Amino acid sequence: MNWPPLNFLSSSGTEAGVILPLTLFVLAVSVAVVVIIAGILSLAVRRRPFASETAPDSVAVSRTKGGTRLIAIGLGISMALLLPTLGWTMVALGQISHAPRRPDVEIDLTAHQWWWQADYNGAAPYQRFATANELHIPVGANVLVRLRGSDVIHSFWVPQLGGKTDMIPGQVNLAWLKADRPGRFTGQCSEYCGLEHAHMGLEVVAETPKQFESWRRAQLQTAPPPASPAQARGFALAEYRCGMCHAIRGTSAGSHFGPDLTHLQSRRMLAANTLPNALPSLSAWIEDPQGIKPGAQMPPQHLSGRELNDLTSYLETLR
Fold it and tell me: Between 3.30.1340.30, 2.60.40.420, 3.20.20.100, 3.40.50.2000, what CATH number should domain 229-315 receive?
């Protein structure tokens, strides 16, 4: 399965629309500064071979007239380019820091080593639910995301929708998302957080309000009961083995150490955007997570072939 790229050169959200022109301008300024400084250095440096043959490739250093003038010219040109960049940055920060009056959707997002826990709030307890590694938001809605770090410093970044915001243990930071079109947008932890930092991705799914409401209602449902003997055996394994770390609503599996599995099959990725959510990947992940994502908190399960088939048979019903 091909995942959408981590694209920071296009925008599909309100904040990203403010940031993108500044990004392109800074990129152009950076290239211009490098070219200008390289040109000035090429004028200022004179290669003169030493008379001695012991170091024929050395560069002779000498004081020449006009060196100070060239440095002043270089500094002047750099300042002329960088000062407008500073001014534009301040203006952009002011624009994206202006929060809407009230959110349409509220999400509490907690970063763990190395996955994302998303808790959707509601007016009543029965309207709240948890998911992992995949956020759904309605197009055109003001989405407030409360950001927390559970262990070390992480950083939330979905470049097509907005800028980076750090997630610091013991502190709640706020990010606002507003998508202007439907689509799937790749995000990534952008603060080094340990061994599997590179495999700590997520997806934001922007959909029409009707599609979002349908998804939300489905997420509120509890897990279905097993419908076959194999699923019943897998259900027992899930409660006994998976329930030590995971929650499956409607069952006795109620731990929140790992991702909520109630609607595992509604997500199209596994292990924080590391694997496609398909039966072979799911089986491999259960059997040997350390071989796929070394350092992950999930241990290998050492199941027999029949136990693994029974467990995946049940997990596939969690939609």
Answer: 2.60.40.420
